[in-house]
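idk why but the lab printer keeps eating my pages so im just putting this in chat instead. protein + dioxothiomolybdenum(VI) ion:
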Amino acid sequence: MYVDDTAQRRRMLDLWPVCSPHARARITKRDISAALRSPGVVDVLLAEDIPGHNNTGPARHDEPLLATDEVQYDGQMVAVVVGESLTACRAAAALVKVDYEPLTPIVSVADAIAQNSFHTTPHTLARGDCTAALAASPNRLDGELSFGGQEHFYLETQAAWAEPGEDGAVFVSSSTQHPTEIQTIVSEVLGVTRNKVVVQAPRMGGGFGGKETQGNAFAALVALAATRTGRPARMQLDRDVDMTLTGKRHPFYAKFSVGYDNNGRLLASQVELVSDGGWSLDLSQPVLDRALFHLDNAYYIPAVYFTGRVAKTNVTSHTAFRGFGGPQGMLVIEEIVDRIARRLGLPPEVVRERNFYHGSGETNTTHYAEEVTDNRLQRIWRELMTGSDFAARKAAVGEWNRTHAVIKRGLAITPVKFGISFTLSHYNQAGSLVLIYQDGTVQVNHGGTEMGQGLYTKIQGVAMRELGLPASSIRMMATTTDKVPNTSATAASSGADLNGAAVQNACVTLRERLEPVAAKLLSKEIGSEVAATDVKFMCGKVGIRGRTEPRIEFARVCHQAYIDRVSLSAAGFYKTPGVVWDWATSKGRPFHYFAFGAAVAEVEVDGYSGMNRVLRVDIVHDVGNSLNPGVDRGQIEGAFVQGMGWLTREELKWDKAGRLLTHSASTYQIPAISDAPIQMNVTLLPKADNASAIHGSKAVGEPPLMLAFSVREALRDAVAAYGVAGGEVPLASPATNEAIFAAIKRRCDM
Ligand code: MTE
Ligand code: HPA
Ligand code: MOS
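predcted complex ->
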């Protein structure tokens, strides 16, 4: 049951927003009198009705919940109608009269640069003397790349409901990846202390980063409506409004100068990134940072000067999206490596491999001074090259292309290295609360949220293993802030690492309390002393280490513990050890470890239309000792296809007035089942124990998204087969059919 499925309190009120029709304008008048007289209307909320802060900005307080004197993007909320039905609210919303003086909006990164419109000052990560290394390089590549963002298209749109309680308290159910932040924002907007606010986060119908901050406003609005009217209130956006109002993956502009030798080895790389932050800052700074961290992807570059800045524009406030800037950084370096390879006439896969981090010390150390410990790139590359039969298939693709004039094929292999941890080090903490009842059943609470990534299933597995219980004995509870406080967002792929370890911690505490109780019962059974340390928990029973008999039901031990007045609940806690990052000096060890993977993609392109199919994909991905192989495969397949969508299908278009034209499924094309690779072979890297995370596992949520670069590069490889042989192959991103057709045409016109 999602948030709105549980919105069933009696006489619940509905909410509908009054949105600005201008991307940038001054507000000269707001008149709600007609709307207030409209049938079924209970209240019309304006900024003046907010008792606390009129602000829901997560990082910087730059997001008015309801606009007062200006609007900064198309769709910005000016008022909200609260009424007995959605129909009544919508009808009244049309009666709210707002007068605007329109201004010229900034709708692209290029506009923002031209008008010096930025949210931040430049942030830089550097190593060595890049200018000197560039000058000393035998070859130099200068270029630019602008590429598009991505709509999250979670199937459950933003939703929240709230119910007022006693003494100014409020309960909020929110579709959020970050219940603690919803609690913070609601308390600030209502002007009440945080202990008055309880936020529950039931499972989401997808988040993908789009619910790390973007649910703030809607949760605040239902809380405001509920506390003002004294009645429960709900709000769920429809698809068009959700797409119009909420932030997306950041589009980027990159400008680069790269030095390389005749073997394709990178010697120096100077990259300037500008992201489109949209109207407010949101998470754009850490997103940009993660792009700067991942501008190396898997490659050792001796001299580096990476700098980035967030542009301020009049579009939705762009936000976290699976990979969190990592994909944008990595797209740039993959573009660079491919251009270098094609300039030199070398196979791109050879140039890629030559540049891998390797050995120890300097050549295995990133530009932010973190060593790539337990580097698995070479091993994965070798296994995938062999497993996918790369060499033979490359020859076959060449043969196909020699004998087919219109339909061409392309083949490419690309690597992924992705840093695991929040780069703001103190976010790397988690809590849990595990409750055991006298019948031996368990409730597990933790601070993570479920959005389809299988976190609850994985953590249930952790508790099963720690307590020796079957799945049927362990119930995963919906995440709420009154069970586990002060949580981090479920993000940065670290949900299972952090919350899994916190649950393990609580389970160990409980086991240690139950062991003496069990030892006493077992001693009675066998008539001699059993040491507490010899008690083992398995299959819903307790027994004695090294013996198959006797077995006592776990439930009996729990009941006895209650009789003996032993506490059967425990809070757990975990903080990632050893992560440090100094933002000002840009040095440290921001990541606890790295996730690795590689993918081979083979595609077929029609030269007359640019239409294409992904024939086959082979993946080797490192998930450590998988906590749940089924879930991990699902994550790898899903992330790959979502990455393909970003790189090939999904195109966001704004008009000159700053209106999003692609605000529904009819104009914005996420991959359909028919776009999925016809054949997809996913291998979880074997013998991959990871000592750094829970039960030897590795984070999996985001890294495989970037395996989809293989599709982009395979498409480019196919395009390269048209027209004059050799040379660079410019390709737009997203590489839509139109973009591919244009790239082919460019080659044939050369
Ligand atoms: N998988 C599904 N099905 N739905 C989602 O919303 N979000 C992704 C990823 N996988 C997502 C998903 C993102 S952006 C992240 S950061 C991780 O899951 C978060 O969960 P984890 O930390 O438990 O992996
Ligand atoms: N990843 C995802 N979400 C985040 C991060 C991050 O590194 N930092 C803050 N929010
Ligand atoms: Mo994921 S973008 O870190 O929510």
